Amino acid sequence: MVDRFQKTAIARFGRWQTLSRFSKFSKKTTTAVAITLSLVFLTLAAAEPVLSSSENGTTRRTLNAILLVDVSRSMLAEDGPGGASRLEAGILAIEKLFEAYPDGRFGLVIYTDEVTVYPPTFDHTALSFILRDVLENYSSAVRGEGSDPITALNEAGKLIKELPYTVDAVFLISDGGKSLSPIDIHPPLAPVLKKLKGLGVHLVVIGVGGLIPAAIPVYADDGVLIGYHQYQGVVVYTALSEISLKSFADGTSGRYLRLTDTNDLVAIARSENLDSQPIAQESTTSLVWLPVTISILLTALWLRPRIS
């Protein structure tokens, strides 16, 4: 008799109706909580949570470099790749380099016979803006005449020496000229090159322009061609001085490349393995399954009494 009573009591205790008497939450309240939690976890799943880890991630390489850009007036001659000016062709190639190495630090040195230095930064957009401003507002943005690559390289060397991280390369972008002739530059440039070599920096000389002399166009503020640059009443013609640039590269144990395509800087950086800086890539594991699973379990718990 007692044994039968115990069995009946235990069976009744396992029913929802009996359990609800001992709980401060009603069935209606518990159902609402289950549905709410289920929706919360579904919302979390929609956010596509991931678990990030850099310890087990793969490693890729990036490039840290200083860009020396000749902005002398001859760089405005429009005989670059695709009919662009020499300066614009150089800028387009630099922007391709930024795209290829978004994690790279790039410094900028623009020079005529005066030098302006911008320390390395991850903000490639700012560097592009500086170069574009020179191109589009040349008369107001550029100071000085001629070009002085010796001072520019010297400033690059000073900058690299002060940096707490490694710089892989210096890219010198120019159309050449007397300032780069072997006789004029090698004696004063020797200490600069020794400094760069001691720092393990590779020098890449990029020649921009055509071999046939071209005039330098002059435009009004509204972009209309109004003539060509003159010196003492005579139109000035200028061509790429490949001999001086090649001689300069050879004398500095550097590499010379004539720019024929905007991807050339990226190509030489990769072919010469200049991109030596390791970047740890984060490995990610999707956790979408976790909130979805919890949501399904909550829904199942809510439906179970109804099915019973």
UniProtKB/TrEMBL annotation:
Q: Which Pfam families match?
A: VWA_2
Q: Which residues cross the membrane?
A: 286-303
**Where is each VWFA domain found?**
64-274
Identify the domain of life.
Bacteria
- Keywords, ordered alphabetically: Cell membrane, Membrane, Transmembrane, Transmembrane helix
Presence of the UniProt keyword Cell membrane in the record: yes
Name of this protein: VWFA domain-containing protein
Question: Which organism's genome codes for this protein?
Answer: Candidatus Collierbacteria bacterium RIFCSPHIGHO2_01_FULL_50_25
Lineage runs: Bacteria, Candidatus Collieribacteriota
